Amino acid sequence: MATTTNGSHPGTWTADELMHGKVGSHSPPASPTANGAGAGAGAGAGDSPSKKTQSHRFSMRKLGAKKPPADPMDWGMPGHMSEEEVAIFMKFRDEVEKRGGEFKNTVYSFGDIEGEAYCLTRWLRARKFKYDDVIAMIEEATEVRADARNHEFYPNPVEALGCEPSVFMAQYPQLYHSHAKNGCPVFISKPGVLNVDGMECITTLDGILKFHWHVMMHDYKKRLLDHKEAHPDFSNFQCVCVIDLEHLSTSQLSQRALSIVKTQTAIDSVCFPETMNKTLVINAPRFFSLTWNIIKGWIDPRTAGKIELISGRKTWEARLRELVDEDQLPSDYGGKGMATTDTLAKEAPEGVMKQHHELVHVRSSGHSTVDVPEGGSLEVTVYTRATTEVIISIVDENSKSTVFVTGVSVKHTGGTGGNDKPTSVVITKERIKGPVKARIKIDSKGGRFSTAGNFMVACNMY
Predict the structure, then answer these.
(1) Sorting pLDDT into bands at 50, 70 and 90, what band is 228?
(2) Residues contacting residue 234 through CB under 8 Å, at least 6 positions apart
(3) 273 by DSSP, 3-state: which?
(4) Which of 83, 129, 265, 382 is the most exposed, fewest CB within 10 Å of its CB?
(5) pLDDT of residue 258
């Protein structure tokens, strides 16, 4: 990040601008409040560092002129800092500039376009303006992201995961869907339908970790920067999250499932602090609601104020419409936008019209069927960690004498550790042309009373 002749950053706000906003704009609330306010939260951020050069530095006297607001959502935001917090901000800013290098790159992980005031206060709020704790956090984050940085944060998602992202999303649906009224990207996650056995067939915890780096630094970051370019006043580099717990059961809360979720959240908590603008937990089952009432008493009011637990569909649909314009909200979540299933379908490889993913548990045998339309063609890939050999064939369900593929041997020959990659085999050397109802048969070569294991059948229709 370049500096002006007096040492300040291009685009550094003056104290008056931090207190009252840029000329012709309005100071935004930091976050949607519990009663639904928050539209336009990105307004008033001003020009990005790359567009205008300012030579003014912050005024401690003016920055600290306002008392900390009663609304905990505004605490620690530019324009809402106490005199003591401003002093810590100044010290922190000078330390970031002095250290530079990867320390500074960690702080400005989304680039300097976020703006100095908004970026630095994210880190300060994350450690409640305790200076030594903030520095220690950044040092830890710099170390945590070092390996991913050396790999350019895994620009190729297929190489990161070891499978197509669409196969991964079919086991754990997660997606960004447009923007909230305050400009923040809307992220929807569906842990209630997380298929742990399916995940273990296709990737590893290390692969999930690498893919999360890809998402944060190549997807989420791009969405923020694109929105900033289209809306220069946007500076709220945070996310509105929807956590859908529909179909969640106590049996799904296994150590394996929690490990998958923790793998993703561990990075965010250290390397991307204060990027949660608002989280709505919807369709929560009763057992989760009771647990949340206990947990809520353990966390600070500001964090608790960002999280809302709503079980009734009519109630959470209405709340979502307060946060997100109807045309931006998915139709399966009470809006008029593209359904999440259709958005996820866009993750399919180029040229693929439709996909079918099915986890087949094989004892002595198992199968999956898929309809291939007229004019379409089918490609089948199978993923597994099963060490028992199976033989896979593909026949016409309606005319089993018609055999398209026969005698393909599949067996996992790699390691059995949690981060050893699973085996994947393309079953169709040539695509099967429709119209046909294809039956993918899996026959175990193990003993009569043995269990072969799990096989993920991934079908692409072109």
Answers:
(1) very high
(2) 42, 43, 45, 183, 227, 228
(3) coil
(4) 265
(5) 80
Separation of alpha carbons 221 and 15, rounded Å: 28
Most confident of 20-34, 41-55, 316-330: 316-330
Q: Which two tokens stand for residue 360?
A: 């087949």
Closest CA to 63 of 135, 127, 124: 124
Bridge partners, residue 174, by sequence: 189
* Residue 34: pLDDT band with limits 50, 70, 90: very low
Confidence of residue 292 (pLDDT cuts 50, 70, 90): confident
At a CB cut-off of 8 Å and minimum separation 6, what does 399 contact? none
The answer to whether 60 touches 83, Cβ cutoff 8 Å, is yes
Look up residue 188 and give its two tokens.
């929807």
**Which two three-digit tokens encode residue 247?**
């179909």
Global pTM value = 0.84
Could you count the other beta carbons within 10 Å of the beta carbon of residue 80? Answer: 21
* Distance, CA of 146 to CA of 152 (rounded, Å): 10
How do 354-362 and 453-461 pair as beta strands? antiparallel
Query: Are the beta carbons of 420 and 206 closer than 8 angstroms?
Result: no
